[in-house]
């Protein structure tokens, strides 16, 4: 038994080294290099769920949606109570649908919606999946389930979880429906709450749409001041 353990110990150490190297490269955004190490690790540890998730994330980064869908499908079936796996599966399906023809995309909507709604149910504070549902219902035609009322529901849920997400969500909905003055008020709230680059960029983009270059420039200067 002792010799048996000694025989497999180097294989385990080598595999863990592959995972650790892959994770380090992934965190450095060197995704191509990271993928090589994760795949090597998975040859000896085919059920390492974190490595599978990383390979799915890398596939998503490179817009290889079928590969990402395959990885996340495996994970959500193994861990049906994990909200994030359902969210990622729905997200990859959604991105594939956007790049598909209309008829194919229509056939994917149920899976996308179901995955996002299940993720929201499993994790009552999952902001990303609520953003995804908000955008889904904004962009879907009314005849197949899209509606502002549904989007506002998830904006309200976001507001209850995180004020910054809530005000930015409300602003996004108003901007989508070209209620620009109302959207501006929400984005200004977001800017005042966080002074984040993301909040400022939303405001700058809105001013550009409104053809207000002076306000856009002022917002850019202010953003640069807080986000050096």
Key terms for this structure?
228 residues, mainly alpha, Serine Threonine Protein Phosphatase 5, Tetratricopeptide repeat, 13 helices
Any low-confidence stretches, pLDDT <50, length ≥5?
Answer: 1-14
Radius of gyration: 22 Å
Distance between the termini: 59 Å
Strand content: under 5%
Characterise this structure.
With 228 residues, the protein is mainly α. The protein has a domain at 167-228: Serine Threonine Protein Phosphatase 5, Tetratricopeptide repeat, CATH 1.25.40. It is 81% helix and 0% strand. It has 13 helices and no strands. Helix 1 (2-27) packs antiparallel against helix 2 and helix 8 packs parallel to helix 10. It is globular and about 60 Å long.
Q: Topology of this structure?
A:
Layout: H1 2-27, H2 31-44, H3 49-61, H4 65-78, H5 83-98, H6 102-106, H7 109-122, H8 127-139, H9 148-161, H10 163-176, H11 180-194, H12 197-209, H13 213-226
In short:
The protein is built from 13 helices and no strands.
